Amino acid sequence: MVPMQDGHYDLKKIRESITSRTRMVFIANPNNPTGTIVTTAEVRDFMNSVPEDVLVVFDEAYAEYVTSPEYPDDMSYLRAGHNVAILRTFSKIYGLAGLRIGYGLTKIEITNMVNRVRQPFNTNSLAQVAALAALDDTSHVENSRRINKEGKEFLYKEFDSIGIKYLPTEANFIYFQTGKDGREIFDAMLKEGVIIRHMGGQNLRVTIGLPEENRRFISALRKVLNR
Length: 227
Description:
Elements: H1 11-17, E1 24-28, H2 40-47, E2 55-59, H3 75-79, E3 84-89, E4 102-106, H4 108-117, H5 125-136, H6 138-162, E5 165-167, E6 173-177, H7 182-191, E7 197-198, E8 203-207, H8 211-225
Parallel strand pairs: 1-2, 2-3
Antiparallel strand pairs: 3-4, 5-6, 6-8, 7-8
């Protein structure tokens, strides 16, 4: 286990933890549940020191939500011949979670090995058609990104007003603390008809929703905290 630093992956410590037995390193970027990213410079230093026989897997499920200019171009390492796999999904910004469809980008040698062990018929034809259509639906992605950005800024402002600690996010959710037991807050919010996630201790996570959903969440949270 490599502890995070202020909600961020510590790539230097992860590199120090790699041994001759290490086969793969998984890096969620943005990370779930913190919403944080590792930067271009951090990934560059990490990739320059990782042993050649270690596969580095970047889980980029929330990549389309990222607005930071420091977000790395992991494809560049794949193009340069590194042992890299990049995972993407249509379950998040594209809204196709129920169809269970995603894709991976990697070297053909790795693809051939995966094909030996993967289940047959692991995607269905309807999901494939929907995924292809989603790739062409740029207006939906742009609108979803805009709504998420506006919702994020609204929740930041409200959290600051209430005095809630949170981690700035590059995803479509926010990791936060109210200063009170997270389980109690979760249960109380549930009684108000609002579902958030309890992440242990004081830690909570809320998905950024539509404007009316964000307002309802804040209204319920203020009500719960004022009791």
